[in-house]
């Protein structure tokens, strides 16, 4: 036991250069270091100085002692340990031990201690490795993306190397470790991707050798950690791959991502990273719906914000989507956190997309073909539906509802060119009178004799005239020729203009001008019109 303690004391006494408060002791010790030149053999323990005139790879050769071992610490000034080496039996050569290390330009100090017999070094041709020192964050080696990076563990037991890269635009980054490194049982090889504020990916060669994430602009660091059980002075390699982001917004790495209504967000759940968190403001009593796509099963949990306690509390709502899924829950209004995780047994990334929606109408399910147009107009406050949370998409739309919806369009204004006239079926006591009046005064509609017929259905031809006049549309590109619309028809010009903008495409070559417009088809007509004028 005494021998072990004494040995530890001796190792620690030579393991670093002593420093006084004013640095004078350090300077005094360094000034006495013995110059050590290439190919010269040293046989005495002590402190040696090596001047590196340009970045080079050094091959140190130690004669193995018959008992115990010889040790060497390489430092660059005080308290900056670059490498720690000692003779070993792990190389199956009892006569000598060879270490390689690549050093940047500068002056280094080698502390030789323990049972030294002899040691020498020479400069060799080897550039496929990291240049030391890069054991500290401030010495991190800049790396190029999409290029294989080579390094070496500079010690018998453990070594940490740091690298860095900078993104000038957001990218998908994939960190991949070389699987051929772990040739001996018990050796471990890991990597961490992080920035100054947080750890982003945590890889382990034996568990997760490759993982990806979406990164914003900034500087990032990679920490390579080597722990050797049977190997020593081993080489490693890894790559940082860069690729474009998906076309959708992506998850935030800095915290919770806001999940806006009907906006898809892409994410990556990694066994080498953390779970993803999304925040949702559920502002109405409509069902809470999540749409997800994934390549493997995910686990999604829901937490609800407690305003009084000021934290998210767990709810009983969890589900495990796989592939394309739709999850619906009846939830009260409030702020929710959606947590996306993966099964710990899955050792690879799971890319996914997630979208939150609050379904407004119970008769417009997620697979309704015109749901997106209906939901869009509802979100913009243009349509309200009926009091029982129904839209009645297949019902024929009434003329009065068309004028009501058009009048709710943000910024929609009509210039009067004539006074309102009296109609037998509507007067100023009617709830729709003030809505319909501007359309007549602007010449958009004329009524039929003494009747407005505002409670009647609207034909497709009539709707074409209203849209063209209300938005002052002119002939655009090439119009579509419909089999059932003749140039002599009174509505021909309006239908032609709509078709030239792609607002209508008809069906099987027909426009069906006299067919009543359904509420769902009106939503399609209007959304295409808004896209055209905007």
Number of helices: 8
Q: Structural class of the secondary structure composition?
A: alpha+beta
Overall outline: elongated
The domain count comes to 4
| Strand content bin | 25-35%
Could you provide a short overview of the structure?
This protein is an alpha+beta fold and 534 residues long. The protein folds into 4 domains: 1-126, Jelly Rolls (Sandwich), CATH 2.60.120; 128-245, Jelly Rolls, CATH 2.60.120; 257-358, Jelly Rolls, CATH 2.60.120.380; 371-533, no CATH class. The chain has helices spanning 2-14, 24-31, 371-379, 399-407, 433-441, 460-470, 492-500, 519-533; strands at 34-35, 46-52, 56-63, 70-75, 81-86, 96-103, 106-114, 119-124, 131-132, 141-142, 148-152, 158-167, 171-177, 188-194, 199-204, 210-215, 218-227, 235-243, 257-258, 264-269, 276-282, 288-294, 299-306, 311-319, 323-329, 334-341, 350-358.
Describe the structure.
By secondary structure, the protein is an alpha+beta fold. The protein has 4 domains: 1-126, Sandwich (Jelly Rolls), CATH 2.60.120.380; 128-245, Jelly Rolls, CATH 2.60.120.380; 257-358, Jelly Rolls (Sandwich); 371-533, no CATH class. The chain is built from 8 helices and 27 strands. It is elongated, with a radius of gyration of 37 Å.
């Amino acid at each position: 036991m005494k021998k072990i303690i004494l040995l530890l004391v001796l190792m620690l006494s030579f393991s670093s250069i002593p420093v006084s408060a004013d640095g004078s002791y350090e300077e005094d010790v360094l000034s006495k270091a013995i110059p050590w030149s290439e190919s010269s053999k040293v046989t005495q323990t002590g402190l040696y100085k090596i001047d590196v005139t340009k970045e080079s790879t050094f091959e140190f050769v130690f004669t193995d002692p018959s008992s115990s071992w010889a040790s060497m610490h390489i430092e660059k000034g005080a308290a900056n340990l670059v490498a720690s080496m000692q003779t070993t039996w792990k190389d199956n050569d009892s006569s000598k031990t060879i270490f390689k290390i690549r050093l940047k330009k500068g002056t280094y100090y080698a502390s030789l201690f323990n049972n030294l017999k002899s040691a020498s070094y020479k400069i060799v041709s080897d550039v496929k490795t990291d240049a030391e020192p890069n054991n500290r964050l401030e010495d991190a080696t800049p790396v190029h993306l999409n290029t294989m990076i080579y390094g070496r563990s500079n010690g018998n037991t453990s070594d940490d190397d740091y690298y860095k890269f900078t993104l000038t635009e957001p990218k998908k980054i994939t960190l991949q470790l070389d699987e051929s490194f772990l040739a001996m049982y018990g050796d471990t090889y890991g990597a961490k991707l992080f920035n100054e504020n947080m750890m982003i990916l945590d890889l382990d060669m034996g568990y997760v050798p490759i993982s990806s994430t979406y990164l914003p602009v900034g500087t990032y660091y990679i920490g390579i950690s080597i722990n050797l059980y049977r190997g020593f002075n081993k080489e490693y390699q890894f790559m940082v791959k860069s690729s474009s982001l998906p076309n959708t917004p992506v998850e935030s790495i800095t915290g919770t991502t806001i999940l806006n209504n009907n906006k898809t967000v892409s994410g990556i759940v990694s066994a080498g990273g953390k779970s993803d968190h999304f925040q949702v403001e559920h502002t109405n009593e409509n069902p809470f719906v999540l749409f997800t796509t994934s390549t493997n099963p995910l686990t999604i949990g829901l937490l609800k914000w407690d305003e009084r306690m000021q934290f998210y509390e767990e709810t009983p709502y969890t589900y495990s989507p796989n592939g394309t899924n739709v999850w619906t829950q009846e939830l009260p209004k409030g702020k929710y956190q959606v947590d996306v995780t993966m099964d710990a047994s899955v050792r690879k990334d799971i890319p996914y997309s997630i979208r939150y929606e609050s379904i407004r109408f119970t008769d417009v399910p997620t697979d309704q073909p015109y749901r997106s147009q209906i939901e869009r107009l509802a979100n913009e406050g243009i349509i309200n539906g009926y009091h029982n949370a129904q839209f009645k998409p297949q019902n024929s739309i009434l003329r009065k509802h068309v004028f009501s919806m058009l009048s709710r369009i943000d910024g929609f204004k009509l210039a009067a060119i004539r006074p309102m006239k009296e109609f037998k079926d509507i007067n100023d006591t009617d709830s729709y009178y003030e809505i319909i009046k501007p359309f007549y005064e602007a010449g958009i509609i004329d009524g039929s004799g003494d009747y407005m017929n505002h409670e009647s259905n609207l034909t497709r031809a009539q709707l074409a005239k209203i849209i063209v006049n209300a938005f002052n549309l002119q002939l655009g590109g090439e119009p579509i020729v419909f089999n059932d619309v003749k140039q002599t028809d009174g509505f021909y010009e309006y239908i032609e203009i709509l078709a030239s903008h792609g607002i209508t495409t008809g069906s099987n070559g027909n426009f069906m001008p006299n067919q009543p417009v359904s509420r769902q088809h009106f939503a399609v007509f209007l959304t295409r019109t808004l896209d055209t004028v905007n």
